[in-house]
Amino acid sequence: MIENGEQILLRAEGREYFAVAGDEKPMHTDLGIVDLKAVPGREWGDTIASHKGVGFTVVRPRAPDLFRHMKRTGAPVMPKDIGAIIAYTGLCPTDVVLDAGTGSGVLAAYMGIIARKVITCEASEQFAANARKNMQKAGLHNVEVRHADILQEMEKLQGEGLVFDVITLDLQDAALAVPGARKLLRTGGFLATYSPFFEQASAVRAAVETEGFQDIFTITVSEHEMEYSKRGTRPSTRVGHTGFITIARKF
Ligand SMILES: C[S@@+](CC[C@H](N)C(=O)[O-])C[C@H]1O[C@@H](n2cnc3c(N)ncnc32)[C@H](O)[C@@H]1O
User: Fold this and answer.
1) Could you give the domains of the chain?
2) How many A from CA of 218 to the centre of ligand 1?
3) Kind of pairing, strands 164-169 and 96-100?
4) What's residue 194's pLDDT?
5) Most exposed of 7, 21, 158, 207 (fewest Cβ within 10 Å)?
6) pLDDT tens per residue, range 215-226
7) Contact, 247 vs 216, CB < 8 A?
8) According to DSSP H, which parts of the chain are helical?
9) Ligand 1: distance of its center to the CA of 251 in Å?
10) How does pLDDT run along the chain (251 residues), one tens digit per residue?
11) How many whole angstroms separate alpha carbon 169 and alpha carbon 36?
């Protein structure tokens, strides 16, 4: 049953809208006005009619919905790379995660859906505020967005005696944060970095080796969507490079 205050995704005629069940304000769409107060108490998958009689299917938002609907402030980590980070770090529901930079918070949100707690740091106040709104929209109360430079924040976190199971870094100077990551990781914990360029990935490689991390590997993940057309079927010819992921483990 859908509870009052839960995040919902409404879909009708190829369009979709994020909303909150029980919101006093009705949702205005070009397919009609939807009374959100009528949603609590209904079942997931039920259809609710707008005042024009268009039926909206109500579903629980999932991570790919967040990827499409979160307000972007920059390039997010793509789902194929997020998948690799989750798989190779073994992210799980007991984990406490440190992430930087937050950007729009896409990676942080995917991890927040799985992990117990995510602290994510963003140097730009404006981007941090946007990411906070995105987490609110996603209903992710376990993702704490801090407006902070990760290098300074890492020192503070050490002072607070915090330890993390997984640390993810997606920022230009990720290599500089590697020594701090080593101090904050639990033994057996994983560091995952995402670098769009060879040079950044090489700097990270050198840093994780210097810091004594083990089980180090760097990958790029290729994804080729099939294109179906009258002429034939083939992998998409769009160039697919996103970034290099380096995984390293603390022992
Ligand atoms: C590519 S974006 C991150 C995208 C994010 N991982 C996502 O999936 O939405 C990189 C972000 O790192 C932030 N950043 C750069 N240096 C930083 C630092 N020292 N501490 C915290 N954030 C930093 C930038 O402001 C930028 O928003």
Assistant:
1) 7-59 (3.10.330.20), 65-249 (3.40.50.150)
2) 20
3) parallel
4) 98
5) 158
6) 999 999 999 999
7) yes
8) 63-69, 79-89, 106-114, 125-138, 150-159, 178-184, 198-210
9) 27
10) 999 999 999 999 999 999 999 999 999 999 999 999 999 999 999 999 999 999 999 999 999 999 999 999 999 999 999 999 999 999 999 999 999 999 999 999 999 999 999 999 999 999 999 999 999 999 999 999 999 999 999 999 999 999 999 999 999 999 999 999 999 999 999 999 999 999 999 999 999 999 999 999 999 999 999 999 999 999 988 878 999 999 999 99
11) 38
> How many angstroms separate the CA atoms of 240 and 47, rounded?
38
Residue 30 CB partners (closer than 8 Å, separation 6+): none
Helix (H) / strand (E) containing 190: strand 185-195
Token pair, residue 65, equals 């919905």
Ligand 1 centre to CA of 24 (Å) is: 35
Query: Which two structure tokens, joined as six digits, stand for 23?
Result: 């919101």
Q: What residues have CB less than 8 Å from 69, skipping those under 6 apart?
A: 16, 18, 61, 137
Write down the pLDDT at residue 116: 98
Q: Is 150 in the pocket of ligand 1 (CB under 6 A)?
A: yes
Q: Are 207 and 151 in contact (CB under 8 A)?
A: no
Instruction: Output the residue whose Cα is nearest ligand 1's atom 16.
Output: 171
Rounded to an integer, what distance in angstroms lies between the CA atom of residue 215 and that of residue 134? 34
Q: Which residues are annotated as a binding site for S-adenosyl-L-methionine?
A: 104-107, 122, 170
